[in-house]
Amino acid sequence: MTLSKNVAVVSKECVACGCCESVCPLNAISVFKGLYAEVEETKCIGCGKCQKACPASVIYIIRRDNI
């Protein structure tokens, strides 16, 4: 499997509302214990749906080689 060139990254300011989790087409993002969200990089295709859904604007789409 070839990974896309972009990936989502969630900053530490995440409020764990779950909006990102509900829109991810590949279930690549999960909210843990209502505290933070985490992206599973091997599933993420960098589509940006989570970034658009985030009311706190704390999700960024970056080039995978910048991780």
What descriptive keywords fit this protein?
67 residues; alpha+beta; two-stranded antiparallel ribbon; 2 helices; 4 strands
Report on this model:
The chain has 67 residues and is of the alpha+beta class. 15% of the residues lie in helices and 27% in strands. The strands form two sheets. Strands 1-4 form a two-stranded antiparallel sheet. A hairpin with a 3-residue loop joins strand 2 and strand 3 (36-39). The longest helix is centred in the N-terminal third of the chain and has 5 residues, at 19-23. It is globular.
What's the short version?
The protein is an alpha+beta fold and 67 residues long. The protein has helices at 19-23, 49-53, and strands spanning 6-10, 29-32, 36-39, 59-63.
The radius of gyration over CA amounts to 11 Å
Secondary structure: helix percent: 10-25%
Cα end-to-end separation: 19 Å
DSSP summary, beta strand count: 4
Order of helices and strands: EHEEHE
* Low-confidence parts: none
Q: Class by helix and strand content?
A: alpha+beta
The coarse silhouette is: globular
Calculate the mean pLDDT score and round it: 93
Quaternary state reads single chain
Number of helices: 2
Biggest sheet: strands, sense, closure? 2 strands, antiparallel
Strand content: 25-35%
Q: Could you give the order of strands across the largest sheet?
A: 1-4
